[in-house]
Amino acid sequence: MAKISASVYTSHVPAIGAAIDNGKTSDDYWKPLFAGYDFSKQWAAKNTPDVILLVYNDHASAFDANLVPTFAIATGDEFQPADEGWGPRPVPPVKGHSALAAHIAQSVIQDDFDLTVVNTLDVDHGLTVPLSLMFGQPESWPCRVIPVAVNVVLFPPPSGSRCFDLGKALRRAVDSFDEDLDVQIWGTGGMSHQLQGPRAGLINSEFDNEFLDRLVDDAAALAQKPHIDYVRLAGSEGVELVMWLIARGAMDDSVSLKHRFYHVPASNTAVGHLILENESED
Length: 282
Ligand code: DHB
Ligand code: FE
What we know:
This protein is of the alpha/beta class.
């Protein structure tokens, strides 16, 4: 049977992708940030799964205000990097896993979560930057990736508790797939940031660090945090953090912390990162 062995959480700041693509990772500004992912790259090389369920948000690249699914799963075989206005990132196409994705769609929809099913999807920085941070610059990505897109761009985004419960439904779906696959689930976005209006540039390190603490040990209660707290305390784009609750919901209640990193600044954003393993997998 398929099994979820581990989860990765990371911010997905587009400037991180530009720093990688333009050979700037050793610049003074970027060096401390990339140092925080040295362990992660080694861990990812040793623990490369068969498939990643990559929970991210599209930033008006594939979807726009005309059509925004709250939750979508991509069932195609291959996804191209999106052109976000300055050409697509020079990264490999993402290979999907249509059999597992179709199984998840069936299982999760019949488990009362009405996912939108997408076949063709260009994937933006929300999905490709986490892959670059964990796997570097390979010729092709080392595993299959199923994009799970969440609307956190256009009001109203889904609640934290709905996200946490979706994670549990994804776990049930993976557990019932009749093929031996090592599956990871990644949650991306955050941490505190606001890109617009009078509070642009807002960072709240106290909020972020408490979120990191509680995601590990107190996730079910953390999932009850209302949207207004994210927006007030972590900025309008801080609400991306609800996506981390989907990945956490798909894990065991008690998990093993492999890596934690927090860094400011990266563009306008606080960068946070965790790697958690299911203890049952050790
Ligand atoms: C920026 C954009 C993002 O989507 C994000 O999650 C963080 C930062 C930016 O433009 O700086
Ligand atoms: Fe984002």
